[in-house]
Amino acid sequence: MSQPFKDAVGFCKTIMRNGYDAYVINVRLQALTLDETGSEKELDICTEAGLSELQKYFPNIEDSQDKSIVGVLKEGGVTFYFYPADVDDASYTDEVVSTMTPRLLKRLEQRGDIPLSAVCPFIPKAKDMYADFADFSEGKIRFKGVPDQALKKDYSLAYRALRFAANFDKEIEANSWIAIVRNARRVLDYVPMSDFLDEWRKVEAENMYRFFGLLFDSMLLHGLIPEIASLSRVKQIRNPDEEAEETVLVHTLDVMKAYPEELPYDWFGTVACLFHDVGKLYVAEFYEGKWNFLQHHRVGAKITRKVLKRLRFEEQDIDLICDLVQNHMRPHFMLTDKGIRRLRSLDEYPRIMEMVKADIKARNGSWREFNHNLKMAERADIPEDEIEPLLDGNQIMVITGLNPGPFIGTMREALLKAQISDDVVTQEDAEAFVLAYKVKNSM
Questions:
Q1: What is the rounded distance in angstroms from the CA atom of residue 30 to the CA atom of residue 365?
Q2: What ranges in 237-311 are assigned the alpha helix state H?
Q3: What distance lies between CA 203 and its chain's CA centroid?
Q4: Neighbour-count burial for 401-425, b at 16+ CB within 10 Å, e otherwise
Q5: Whether residue 391 sits in one domain with residue 369
Q6: If you ran DSSP here, which 8-state letter would residue 393 be given?
Q7: Structural domain of residue 173, as residue ranges?
Q8: Pair (262, 339) in one structural domain
Q9: Burial class (CB in 10 A: 0-12, 13-18, 19+), 397
Q10: Does 341 share its domain with 239?
Q11: DSSP readout, 10-46?
């Protein structure tokens, strides 16, 4: 081994002893160019350490004007170029080790003997979010070069392409799309969940329905969240008046589309819409000619918690989303005064009401229960001590035949408490209550 290579190996060992990977790139090819007489001696090294870290070990290393090079070190008549190593967990196994650099490729071209291995070399370079994509002005999302080769370098590009397509409302170019579908299994195998979450969190709330539609169409959703993908096989009646069927997945995406119309930046609320009907997969029962999903909201909250833990969401975010899933059915029923007060007491009451609105819009359903609850919510703004009983003192005396006195006031207070506790709702209930109260307390 020549001295330049011994020095290069020594540099790599110094870097590795400090906890960073480093290696000499393609020793065989570099040996060909290094032995040429009259040429400047140069060697390429790959490392995951940055320039500031390398300067601690090699004070003479300098920054490079070439952004693809971390630093340049001249020592012993040899120029050593340090390139960034591939440390991305999502890259294909055969593409992890750098086999070529721009400098080495140029030198081989000058020799006129470029090897076959250099046809599609893995050249180390600094990360750029858009580097592997063609200009968006084309109107489509397209990988540069051969799509399959682009994905091999970093399979997380599949998720990024879906994010770009969703956020910018653009179609994915046909060959790039089929490459994503063709490599879906490898994307799931190689890309860490943290990378998927990083891309997902960059999807805007109002575009999340498109993102998950693309995940489903590309078969990636089936591996990431099979509980959601399976909803494509669960059917329900879209609207009782129309008697038209739809899949729960289609309904879910429609709700995700409608929800941000009122809360456009509510990312977590939109995620809750994604999971709001996931429980239907587990409680579905077919009887009397239709599908029934009793307690799907409560079961769905438990399933959501399990899925979000698997996806490594933060605990406080899991609690928020699960609360929304569990309570999203409350406003679908006509609530009493007591019911609406319990709903209003929830911290996420505004989000829950928006989820219900999105659900109704997605189904083209009836607003009867929702409008009733809005009116009841206005009544809930009145403090309990300011609510008037359904019967005043004169009405109580007429109904019970009692004379004026303290007992009438006591009965009126009892009636008010019964209204607040939801034991008395209508005028008829109030009349029956005071008559029963008279009999019970006159004995």
A1: 70
A2: 248-258, 267-275, 280-283, 296-310
A3: 8
A4: ebeeeebbeebbebbbebbbeeebe
A5: no
A6: H
A7: 136-220
A8: yes
A9: middle
A10: yes
A11: HHHHHHHHTT--EEES-HHHHHHHHT-TTSPPEEEEE
Of 79-93, 179-193, 338-352, the one with minimum mean pLDDT is 79-93
pLDDT above 90 covers what percent of the chain?
Answer: 54
User: Which amino acid is present at 32?
Assistant: L
> How many domains does the chain contain in total?
4
**Sign of the CA dihedral with 243 first, then 246, 251, and 252 last:** positive
pLDDT tens digit sequence for 407-429: 888 888 888 778 766 678 788 88
Q: What is the CATH number of the domain that holds 236?
A: 1.10.3210
Is residue 239 domain-shared with residue 275, that is, in the same domain? yes
Give the dihedral of Cα atoms 379, 380, 381, 384; nearest 10 deg: 100
What count of Cα atoms within 13 Å lies in the side-chain half-sphere of residue 166? 24
- Is 357 found in the same domain as 235? yes
User: How much is the CA Rg of the chain, to the nearest whole Å?
Assistant: 34
Q: Are residues 154 and 97 in the same domain?
A: no
Q: What is the pLDDT of residue 122?
A: 60
Alpha-carbon span 47 to 24, nearest angstrom: 9
Per-residue CA distances from 234 to 35, 222, 237 (Å): 68, 15, 11
Whether 13 and 7 have beta carbons less than 8 Å apart is answered as: no
pLDDT in tens, 345-355: 888 999 999 99
Q: Classify residue 124: in a domain, yes or no.
A: no
Q: Nearest to residue 230, comparing CAs of 277, 188, 190?
A: 277
- Give me the amino acid identity at 287: Y
Does the reported pTM lie above 0.85? no
Residues 113 and 83 in one domain: yes
| Span 4-54, pLDDT tens digits | 899 999 999 999 999 999 999 888 778 877 765 556 788 999 999 999 999
Same-domain pairing of 239 and 206: no
CB of 430 within 8 A of CB of 389?
A: yes
